[in-house]
Amino acid sequence: MCMADYTSCLFADLEQLGSASGFVEEIHEVVKTLALFDGFSRQECEILCQYMTCYGASSRTAILREGDRGDFMVIVLTGRINVMKVHDSATSKMLVEIGPGGFIGEMSLIDGQHRFASCISSEPSDFAVLTRDSLNEILVDYPRLGNKLLLVLLQTMASRLRETTTRMLPTIVGVPA
Amino acid sequence: MAFFSALIPEDLGRYSRLVQEVIAVRRHVDLLRWLQGDVQHYLPHEIMVAAWGDFSQGLIHFDIVSALPGVRTEHVDSTRLAPLLQKLFVRWISHDKTPCTLGAGESGLFSSDTGLQCALGDALQDMRSSLVHGISDERGRHDCLYVIFSSRPALGDATRSAMEVLLPYLDTALRQIAHLPRQKPDDPPPAAPARNGEGHSLSSREVEIIEWVRKGKTNYEIGCILDISAFTVKNHLQRIFKKIDVYNRMQAVTKFESFSRNA
């Protein structure tokens, strides 16, 4: 099953926007602001878009569900996505809000484990999907670009880990942040 | 080297032509013509499979060059062929990275249970011998493997020697050709858009959007009404413009109204 068919099944209820190759300008606008690695050039964006598919979601739509298995990540293009964690059996707690240019689901993309949290749109949102198979294809076809993408993912995850640790330290070990 | 010492004056001319032709290869069809031309004198074969990538990780891409009907890269399921190529690569490594010939039944590719349910799988059952050689990329981990399949009962020393000499040219030629379209063995051919009773091929969502455009709503307003983003509305409109062959909103509304009048 090719990538577009796989994710089309997952997002059957959402607006099918087609290959990300049709949105290179928009995607380049959001990713070029990633300053740490000088962003991605338009040409690099064009290449990456060949490996992604885009979808549109209404507000209050679950893009990812906590506990589901998954091997793809989502790049937010427009709108806002809330990352929610089940707090007790009745409620969920919002952990963070992700806007255009942000990633969600990258941990499962890397380790294939269950989704850590649910991601729900708080307003109409559009996003691009990158699967693990597509990431592997990029690493073979365009190794340097694939490594650049991996570094950006690593940066995002390191930043989140640092932030979480800083917040948790006073509670867990009594060490001030 | 045995290849050069065996060349007679006529062969020198042929070899010189080979080199000149391969230098000019720029497209897949050029490579096919080259392999089906004088190369057959040195490397008799019906099918050539070029594979590249990181074989240790199983991240393998391949390209099939053959004049046999239906034996094409895009018809092959990569999940079936890649593991077989990985085994051949390991075999080649264990052969000290020198050209190795395999008879029917040795490579695992000639049998009917390869799972290659396509023209390639059928064609391979008629092949009787194969030759494997490659390049182990010590710097970039972008290894390459070249496998030729022949209906001849055996490929001898002369063919092995020729492969050693011609491989660099073959590899260079392949690197200069643009990638074939991404391998999607199950892609159906694009269907012509079906026209509904009103004479257009717009989906119900697209009709909904064009109705709001007709009422003078902006993309943002349409997005608010339908609870989708303006980006999605714009995407739908671009598809509408293509389907009904117009360039802007006014033309789209005018054409849509004519469909409605003619229905």
Structure report:
Chain A is of the alpha+beta class and 177 residues long. Chain A is 40% helix and 26% strand. Chain A has six helices and nine strands; from the N terminus they run αβααββββββαββαα. In chain A, α2 packs across α3 and α5 packs across α6. The longest helix of chain A is centred in the last third of the chain and has 30 residues, at 143-172. Chain A is globular and about 50 Å long. Chain A starts with a helix and ends in a 5-residue tail after the last helix. The mean pLDDT of chain A is 83. With 263 residues, chain B is an alpha+beta fold. Chain B has a five-stranded antiparallel beta sheet, with helices on both faces. Mean pLDDT of chain B is 81; it is low at 182-193. The chains are: A alpha+beta (177), B alpha+beta (263). At the A-B interface, β1 and α5 of A face β2 and α10 of B.
